[in-house]
Fold this sequence. Notes:
The chain is α+β, with helices and mostly antiparallel strands and about 110 residues long. The chain has helices spanning about 1-20, 45-50, 55, 80-90, 100-110; strands at about 25-30, 35-40, 90, 95.
Amino acid sequence: MNKKLLAVIFGTVLLLAACGGAKTDKTATETTTGTTTTETAKVDPEKIVQAKCTTCHGGNLQGQGGTPNLMTVGSRLSKDEILNVLKNGRGGMPGGLVSGDEAEAVATWLSNNK
């Protein structure tokens, strides 16, 4: 029974980590009188963090279990160090959960948390 329960819990955690959040379309195209303009939507790092980080780091980013507190991560790590963790992972955190413009925005936002 314990093995089955552990398998269900592990599977659930793996599924939640993989699903992290829905990707949003960053571009919107508008056609006006025969011309097409493309506008890039602003990346909202707080929404990304809420969607992809709070499951492990807690609703207020206070850390839980063995995960670090992100409320003051900017006092410990620079923006580049945070970006490196987002891209490559560290400890129990897998890399690539956030990438591209989203990773840049999240790293900047978290580096301001001091």
